Each structure stands twice: as structure tokens, then as C-alpha cells.
Amino acid sequence: MANFDYDLFTIGAGSGGVRASRVAAAHGARVAVAEEYRVGGTCVIRGCVPKKMLVYGAHFAEDLEDAKRFGWQIENPTFDWRILRDNVLADVDRLNGLYTQTLDNHGVRIIDQRAKVTGPNEVTLADGSRITAKYILVSVGARPMIPDCPGHELGITSNEAFHLDALPKRILIAGAGYIANEFAGIFNEFGSKVTLINRSDKLLRGYDETLTGRLLQISLAKGIQFRFNAAFRGIEKNLDGTLRVSMTNHDDMEVDCVMYAIGRVPNTEGLGLENVGIELGERGEIKVDEFNKSSVESIYAVGDVTDRVQLTPVAIREGQAFADTVFGGKPSKVSYDHVPSAVFSHPPLAGVGMTESEARNTLGSIKVYQSDFRPMKNVLAGRNERALYKMICEGESERIVGIHLLGPDAPEILQAAAVAVKAGLTKADFDATIAIHPTMAEELVLLR
After folding, report:
1. Which of 61, 122, 189, 293 places its Cα 20 to 30 Å from the Cα of 331?
2. How far apart are CA 390 and CA 372, in angstroms?
3. Please, where in the chain does CATH 3.30.390.30 lie?
4. 255 Cβ partners below 8 Å, 6+ apart?
5. Which of the residues are catalytic?
6. Which CATH architecture fits 152-262?
7. pTM of the model
8. Which of 152, 204, 169, 194 is nearest to 350 (CA)?
9. pLDDT of residue 1 exceeding 80
10. Residue 80 and residue 349: Cα distance in Å, rounded?
């Protein structure tokens, strides 16, 4: 490897790229990372971390109202979006510094430029400099998809949502996935009038339909409006700065902000990948094998740019596996079975394993256990909102193949339950576990 400038050159300092670079350096490799924006990637800078902080802020809207039933008298509470926005962005700065420090501490060189691949062992920086490396890792993530309609440039994506000067009085959110539903809940709790539109009539495709149907009911009760089977015809700006949106199957509507959350596409344009023989998929994703190797022997890819499972913890695992395989002498693969995921909606939803319909189609004979209950806090608060838990079991053995939760703290509860599904435990194992009372999580060991 002495014939090259570096043993590893990583393009993109997101979660997967940072983990791969840090671990490779710990294994003794000479590593450089090129990042054109900020170290930390989508999750830390403009994704799950700042969004979760907004979710926490939004929860106070209902908590302050519920507090009255618990004896707290809070007179005329007010909300200042700019304070929350600026505090969140300040914490993003802090995390950006920590990620940068981590790479520095491991001797990884950070290059604040865009890089593209110009050979199987060569990258070219924006300033024209050429750098060689024994291995190249592409971890540039994905970007929000923009609809192809007249006036699409008038809308924003989740990237810009964190930087709004003021909360929109009326916001139209396009999409039905986790990003759309999370921001719908956030803006609704902050007092915006929220309408969510989607091209199909499905909400949160891939999650259990019993729970997504319940979330739709709760969201409607909270005041969020939905327009299904709606596609953009066009967006126009009115003289007063508001936006007029036309769509299929529904009347036009006027809003103050349009936000796109219709999916994310691999960020491979302009990287020169096709020129060196890297095979790309239909969405522009880099095709890789089980060890994250592309069609070019010396070039690997991890994270959302491969379009396998677009989740931060998955990208981190892939980065770790790559570094251990190539530089640690320990061939490692990532298992994509039983990957838990969550939607930080209001209330949150979380799931792991097969949904009921997937289990019926795959296994045939199954058993479904369900608990539909009102959390204790909601009872005293006078809130009718109910939680819903489901456990999907293989029919004969009652091996648990899926757990799906909708309700307060569902993601926190599911993390431990996901271990049980991954380990192949049975309903009897849950039944044999004594409940912690009173908790919502105890419903998992009391299902009938």
C-alpha cells in the first residue's frame, strides 16, 4: 500500500463513512475523508437527530395541556419557534465538532472538498488535486426526492425545514412515509394547519396496517388533514407570497409552505462512478455484494447510497463490517433480518419483523396477539387516545416473528423487544416473564 497516498479514501463523512474511517484507522490504515458540507451526515446535521429534538419540543404542546389534570396550573404558555430552532442548530454544531474530533483523534485527514472517482484507485478533488488510495469507499448517502411538476422549486424539503424563519400557518406535506408523518405531527403540535397528500391511499407502507390505520385515525382527531390519491399538477406563487397548489382528484388549495417528503434517492450524480465501471441500479444506487464491494475490486460503498436499508444504524454496521473485512482481517457481513425501525409520529410507532400480512403470506399458519388499551397517563389526562400492541407468532411453535407497537415511548420499548425477535424467542418466553407494573411495556408479557 506504500505506492498509494492512502490506504483508504472515503467520500462522504456521514454515519457510515465516519465509522468505517475511524475503525480502518484503528486497524492501522492511513485514511483520508472528503466531505463537501459538514462532518456527521444527514442523520446528525439535517435528519434524525435534529428532528428528534423537534419531536421533543412538539410533545410539550400536549404535555402542558395534560398537566392541568395533574394539578399543574400553567397560565398562557407561549411557544417561540426561533428559540427551539436556534438551540437545535447549536447542538448540531456541537455534534459536528464531536464527529470531527473523533476523526482527528484517530489520525484521519479531513478534506473539506467535494471528491469524485477518476480511477479504480484515484479520486479528484474540487480544486483539481488528485489523490490515490488502495481502496475507495463511497458513503455519500441520499438526498430528498423532488417532484417533477411546474413550480416545484417553490417547495422545501426536510433539509430546509430546520432553518425556517417562522412557522408556516398552513403547510402542505407531500408523502406518506416516516419523514412526512413525523413532520406532520411536529408542525401540527406547533400550531400549523397541516395537510398531508400522497399519491396512493397507503400510509407508512411496510408497517403493520392495523397500526397505520390507527395512527391515521389519531392524526385525523388531532386535526391533521389527509388527501390521498393526489399528485402534484403544479405550484404557483400568489402576489401575497402564499402558494396555490393544484393536484389530481382534489380541489386546489392555498398554503404558506409546501414540503416534499416523497422519498430519498442515492446521491451518486457527478461522482464519475460510471466512468470507472461501477454498476448502478435503476435509482442510481451502487450495487454491492454482501461485503459492500462494488463491481470494481478496489471500490466499496456503504449506507443509503446502496439503497438497501436506509437507516443510520444500518449504515454504521455496514461501515464497521467494511473496515473489519478489509483492514481488520475479520470478514464481516451485516444481517438485514429483523431490523427494527420507528416512526416518531404523534404518537410514535415502531416495529420489528414481519407484519401480519407478511406473516400470513410467508408462513400461512400464524397466531396474532393484540392489546388495545388506554395508557394510564391518558386516562387521568382525560385523553381518549389509545395504544395498540401486536405480536405475530408462527402458528405451531409460537416463535415470535414480529412485534409492532403504537403508543407513547413505543420505540424505547421496542428496542429490547427486538432482541427477543432476533433471538427467535417464543410467546411462552414472554409469558414466563413477570411484568413490571404499572407500565405500558408490561402489555408485551400479558398478551392474550
Report:
1. 122
2. 9
3. 347-445
4. 168, 170, 171, 172, 195, 242, 243, 245
5. 437
6. 3-Layer(bba) Sandwich (3.50)
7. 0.95
8. 204
9. no
10. 27
Alpha-carbon separation of residue 166 from 84, 152, 179, 190, 342 (angstroms): 11, 21, 20, 11, 28
Three cell numbers, residue 387? 395504544
- Mean pLDDT in residue range 150-164: 97
User: 41 pLDDT band (50/70/90 cuts)?
Assistant: confident
CATH class of 347-445: alpha beta
May I ask the CATH architecture of the domain 6-142+265-326?
Answer: 3-Layer(bba) Sandwich (3.50)
Rounded to an integer, what distance in angstroms lies between the CA atom of residue 53 and that of residue 186?
A: 10
DSSP conformational letter for 398: -
Where are the domain boundaries for CATH 3.50.50.60 in the chain?
6-142+265-326, 152-262
- The residue to which cell 414472554 is assigned: 430
Strand partners for 349: 343, 406
Burial 205-243 (b: 16+ CB within 10 A, else e): eebbebbbebbbebbeebebebbbebebeebeeeeeeeb
